[in-house]
Amino acid sequence: MLTLNDRVLGIAALIFAALITAFGYDLEPPFSYEPVGPKAFPLLLALIIALCGLRLVIKGGGEVEANPEGANVRIATMVAYLAGYAFLFQWIGFIAATTLMVTLIGRLFQATWAQAIIGGVVMSVGLFFLFDKGLDVVLPAGILGDLL
Amino acid sequence: MSSVLEYLSLGFSVAFTATNLLVAAIGSFIGTIVGVLPGLGPINGVAMLVPIAFAMQLPPETALILLAAVYVGAEYGGRITSILINVPGEAAAVMTTLDGYPLARQGLASVALSLSAWSSFIGSTIAIIGIVLLAPLLANFAVAFGPAEYFVLMVFAFCALTSLLGDEPVKGILAAMLGLFISTVGVDSNSGVYRYTFDLPNLADGIDFVVVVIGLFAVAEMLQMLENLLGGTSIEVPKSERKLFNLKELAFTWWSTVRAGVTGFVIGILPGAGASVASAVAYANEKKICEGKDPNAKFGQGDMRGLAAPEAANNSAATGSFIPMLTLGVPGSGTTAVMMGALTLYNITPGPVLFDAQPQIVWGLIASLFVANVILFLMNVPLVRLFASMLSIPPRLLVPGILAISFIGVYAINATRFDLLMVVGIGVIGYFLRKMNVPMAPMVLGVVLGDMMEQNLRRALSITNGEISILFESKISIALWILAALVAIVPPVLRKLASKKASVPAN
User: Are B401 and A27 an interchain contact pair (Cβ–Cβ within 8 Å)?
Assistant: First the structure.
């Protein structure tokens, strides 16, 4: 697998600077009444990002220690869970989505199924009542809409 | 002087309303817990509470009081684990372990805890007095700043933050530029041109500051926690004979506390330096001074002065770091940058004008800092056991809990799925950047200052019709350029010299 080091970061910075320039170069206002238009600042940033990138590529070094075994899989799983949580949050509602998220992430942190599920239900219901009913922060009710 | 007293009494009248007192107490409580939990520091706590305070429709001064109490509270909380289990609860509490932990092992844990709460209190109080005396002067001075001076001032802030923050300035600059770039996304207010929105309506208003901050400081942080699975640790506060320090110990540590409080304040004002640097400098200073005078000094083996000094310094630095944000409108640290972002949610721009336009916000905050400190001191002595017990919350509950609260906050701002997905995306990017040692504070500063920086640059150049000479015209600008150059060059050179010295064998 690709190891992370300063050269990788530098190359990423160079690519990013190129993208900023590519998508920023054509930014022209329909009519202009000031000497500095909308593209000057982003292009200046792209230049500095590119210089940082070059410096990192030339200097090299900065090997990042590899994660302990199994960590990468756990992290990727958690990112997937969180993306799912973000996707379901509004759709199926806060309580249902949060129960699911807390249960699954609890499992990632070595909870037993019973601990994880109880934790999920208690936390999602508790937070819903604390924020939605108690603090007036409106949360989506979703599939439990009629109950709440 | 009389006007200062007038403003101060206005401030206390704001701080002493029932809501604001309650909010200060809640903030202090939450802050201490955040400080106790290793891995979570003031910036995480403040970042998580920003959107929630906004969604609860707290008035701006109340929201700011909440965030400030959390910030100061976290500095109090960090010391608890340093003393009890030799694990600093947050970055600025590292120096506290040096003498705090040995004291605990000698059976003086409760004494060490109460004494350090006291020195934290004194440190903060010194800094608050400093703010009251210094802030109005600085604000008066900054009123004269034009767009060119502001632009250069922000350049200076970035130089200071990137150069003092780590030994890899390139990565600091890179982080700052990424943050500035994020702020350019959305409609350009001068020309109406859509920049980097890729025709997505959700990006037209730009990337919300809250989305970036939660992504970088909640999601990325939690991903990092997955690298090593550690169970919750339960610790007991040992029952030592005495709960409180005695007068003799107070007198013994008094001058160390005061000196460290002043040092911390001065360092706290400098953009970029902050509480961690302050506590390290204060500890080293105190060690030198005391060992010179007192042959019985035992720094590193449980000298109470070595405990009092870093605690006084980190609290006074945290309090002092409000000065650049309040007076100049340019925050000097990651945490105050997040707070400034919170104010921009309310369409309030901190800076010299705020002192005149909305004194209740500025002086209410200053008075509340003092109130929060009193609350923290009173709360920290009896409740230490409760705070220490927070460590036994296992990650299987802590991590999803933090994530759920973070998502609530982000959802509360715009109520869109898009923002939530973007938080996850930014969190993943933030995780990789952290792995490669890219500091996060300059990035937050970039996001917060980006719009102001670009606007001031464009305004300045409009005056001269594009001639960049205006950036070097006034005395203030030139002085700021020189300061920026100094702060960018001197610390790395000093570091290089120090490492050379270390590598040359002593003969």
Answer: no
